[in-house]
């Protein structure tokens, strides 16, 4: 698959990977990690290690034959498997005009060590560098496991209906309106509407939640959903490349292209730092000639070579991008998609979160919350549902859903009163249902307390006599209240809710959830105005969280836009900077935690690399550090930084 190659290439560039570059040059599909993790990749390092240990053993016992050209040849055989790729890379970068790279530093240092007769040290430098590369590749693979899982959720074939039979075709050849079959245990290859009465799906590949989801006839099934029960059929609604899953995969593919400021700084720093340390090493070799009475070239050359190995910037340019990449991977495993590592940085600075209500803190689905009737309750509900079955309004659908899978009574003389409700003759009775304005128009008396209710209410009259009401409300999500608590606990000082719903309902929801301030009755342009007003305070770093459709303008205007419920929204994926895949507002705080953990790890790695290198550089310049200490200061620190960077994969958020 294309993502694997693209993303790893990005990481290789950032992490200065030598072996990975060679291994992946012939990859075509999703096997790019197979070479990096196969035994074949470890052979050069293993061969070099065995020869080095053998050479050190022969040196220790002072074997009579192990001297002169035999000893040199032995260590050259140990050097070539791990040293040649680095020297080749140094040559390639010089040809491209990039002279001062870590490859040149390592090459010069080890060739110089060989020239001075420090054969074991020369081999050890390249060997441990090679081992560091292998660990780096393993760490990159581990960091990408959660992201790579997305690549396996879309099947390579679709069972297309043709003249009553089904044939296997490539999903990208299926057209909108075609019918495809999904068998038990298979994943939907395309977006479509369900043609069966109902079906159960596992949506874990898309949302990270393994809880089965029941979808009914006419409802949307998304590519990547796993069919759990019966053989089903879908009518395709989107082309292969336009499916929600394809949009998510595209997002993930581009996630590594937007770099954090720290990451960009380290890259620029390394370009300046490397030539500086190269010339400092030269100065360390030659300048003492003019000031030291017993100057010995080989001694000061060795110090210069040690200085070169110590100062190699590998620990920085490997571990920092890997830290951010690990953060993106950890977020993906938690159902959160960051469009770039720069947003991992921004999210740590948030102090104000502005949220939409419907679809973000609430399910965005009307449900009957209360029923009160003056007649038999079952008769009331049957009459009301039979009447509302004639409407496609969301409120009418909520009443019909509440009624359940029962038969409706026959109707006649159905009339719609615009902006008021419906009326019809049912079972010989004149039945009317709608808002309070309808009953007022009909001059039907009803209890005065009904006018005090802030939720949507449907009243019914039978033969011009008030019969009762149902209260319709949007359900608050189970984790919404905890989400607000977690946001405040993670440094967000103010949570604001903006909604197009009635202000009375908006204020009630805000009070129930503990939101700091709320504004209702807002049009999209009003939301933009409110967000602009909030951002006028320069101290505010603002995130907007919405469904990504009506809220696209404010998503774009905020410092970081977060889309909820984006699996069905192309606009969300295009506009938002962060996508919450499973609709849970509590994931906003999780995203902040992941951002903070990533930043902490990155800064730890910077401190570790600079601290150890500075100490050993001083010791090396003073002749107190050997090539072995230099190996630890470079490759050892890089190794520790890599281990630190992958810690985030084991953290719970």
TrEMBL record:
Keywords: ATP-binding, Cell membrane, Membrane, Metal-binding, Nucleotide-binding, Translocase, Transmembrane, Transmembrane helix. InterPro entries: ATPase_P-typ_cyto_dom_N (IPR023299), ATPase_P-typ_P_site (IPR018303), ATPase_P-typ_TM_dom_sf (IPR023298), ATPase_P-typ_transduc_dom_A_sf (IPR008250), ATPase_P-type_domA (IPR059000), Cation_Transport_ATPase_IB (IPR051014), HAD-like_sf (IPR036412), HAD_sf (IPR023214). Its main location: membrane. It is found in: Cell membrane; Membrane. It comes from the Bacteria. It catalyses: Zn(2+)(in) + ATP + H2O = Zn(2+)(out) + ADP + phosphate + H(+). The chain crosses the membrane at residues 42-61, 68-87, 272-292, 304-325, 601-621, 627-646. Its EC number is 7.2.2.12. Gene3D superfamilies: Calcium-transporting ATPase, cytoplasmic domain N, Calcium-transporting ATPase, cytoplasmic transduction domain A, HAD superfamily/HAD-like. The keyword NAD does not apply. Residues 154-253 form the P-type ATPase A domain. The keyword Translocase applies. PROSITE patterns: ATPASE_E1_E2. SUPFAM superfamilies: Calcium ATPase, transduction domain A (SSF81653), Calcium ATPase, transmembrane domain M (SSF81665), HAD-like (SSF56784). Belongs to the cation transport ATPase (P-type) (TC 3.A.3) family. Type IB subfamily. This is P-type Zn(2+) transporter. The lineage of its organism: Bacteria, Pseudomonadati, Bacteroidota, Sphingobacteriia, Sphingobacteriales.
């Amino acid at each position: 698959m294309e993502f694997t190659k693209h993303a790893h290439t990005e990481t290789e560039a950032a992490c200065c990977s030598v072996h990975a570059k060679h291994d992946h040059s012939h990859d075509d599909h999703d096997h790019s990690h197979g070479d990096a993790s196969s035994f074949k990749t470890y052979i050069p390092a293993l061969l070099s290690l065995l020869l080095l240990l053998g050479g050190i053993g022969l040196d220790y016992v002072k074997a009579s034959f192990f001297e002169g050209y035999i000893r040199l040849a032995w260590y050259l055989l140990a050097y070539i498997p791990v040293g040649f790729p680095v020297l080749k890379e140094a040559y390639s970068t010089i040809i491209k005009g990039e002279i001062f790279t870590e490859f040149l530093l390592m090459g010069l240092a080890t060739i110089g060590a060989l020239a001075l007769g420090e054969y074991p040290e020369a081999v050890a430098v390249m060997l441990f560098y090679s081992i560091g590369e292998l660990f780096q590749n393993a760490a990159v693979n581990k960091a990408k496991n959660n992201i790579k899982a997305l690549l396996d959720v879309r099947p390579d074939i679709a069972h297309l209906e043709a003249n009553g039979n089904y044939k296997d075709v490539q999903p990208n050849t299926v057209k909108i309106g075609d019918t495809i079959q999904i068998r038990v245990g298979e994943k939907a290859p395309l977006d479509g509407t369900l043609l069966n009465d109902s079906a159960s799906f596992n949506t874990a590949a898309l949302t990270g939640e393994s809880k089965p989801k029941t979808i009914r006839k006419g409802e949307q099934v998304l590519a990547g959903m796993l069919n759990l029960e019966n053989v089903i059929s879908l009518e395709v609604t989107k082309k292969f490349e336009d499916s929600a899953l394809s949009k998510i995969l595209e997002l993930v593919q581009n996630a590594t292209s937007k770099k954090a400021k720290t990451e960009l700084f380290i890259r620029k720093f390394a370009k300046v730092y490397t030539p500086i340390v190269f010339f400092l090493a030269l100065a360390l070799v030659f300048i003492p000639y003019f000031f030291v009475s017993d100057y010995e070239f080989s001694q000061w050359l060795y110090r210069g070579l040690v200085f070169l190995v110590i100062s190699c910037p590998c620990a920085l340019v490997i571990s920092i991008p890997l830290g951010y990449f690990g953060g993106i991977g950890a977020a993906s495993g938690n159902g959160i998609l960051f469009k770039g590592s720069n947003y991992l940085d921004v999210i740590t600075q948030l102090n104000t979160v502005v949220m939409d209500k419907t679809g973000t803190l609430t399910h965005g689905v009307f449900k009957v919350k209360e029923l009160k009737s003056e007649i038999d309750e079952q008769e009331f509900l049957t009459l009301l549902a039979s009447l509302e079955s004639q409407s496609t309004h969301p409120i009418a659908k909520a009443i019909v859903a509440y009624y359940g899978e029962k038969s409706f009574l026959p109707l006649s003389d159905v009339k719609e009163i615009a902006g008021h409700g419906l009326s019809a003759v049912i079972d010989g009775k004149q039945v009317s249902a709608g808002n309070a304005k309808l009953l007022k128009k009909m001059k039907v008396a009803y209890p005065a307390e009904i006018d005090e209710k802030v939720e949507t209410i449907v009243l019914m009259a039978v033969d011009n006599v008030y019969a009762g009401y149902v209260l319709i409300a949007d359900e608050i999500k189970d984790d919404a209240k905890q989400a607000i608590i977690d946001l405040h606990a993670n440094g967000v000082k103010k949570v604001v809710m903006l909604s197009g719903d009635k202000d009375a309902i908006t204020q009630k929801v805000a009070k129930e959830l503990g939101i700091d301030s709320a504004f209702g009755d807002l049009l999209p342009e009003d939301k933009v105005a409110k967000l602009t007003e909030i951002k006028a305070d320069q101290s505010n770093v603002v995130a907007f969280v919405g469904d990504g459709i009506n809220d696209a303008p404010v998503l774009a205007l905020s410092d970081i836009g977060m889309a909820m419920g984006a699996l069905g929204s192309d606009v969300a994926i295009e506009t938002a900077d962060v996508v919450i895949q499973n609709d849970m507002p509590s994931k906003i705080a999780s995203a902040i935690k992941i951002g903070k953990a990533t930043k902490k790890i990155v800064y730890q790695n910077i401190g570790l690399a600079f601290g150890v290198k500075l100490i050993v550089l001083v010791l090396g310049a003073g002749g107190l550090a050997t090539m072995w200490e230099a190996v630890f200061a470079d490759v050892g620190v890089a190794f520790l930084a890599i281990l630190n960077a992958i810690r985030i994969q084991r953290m719970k958020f």
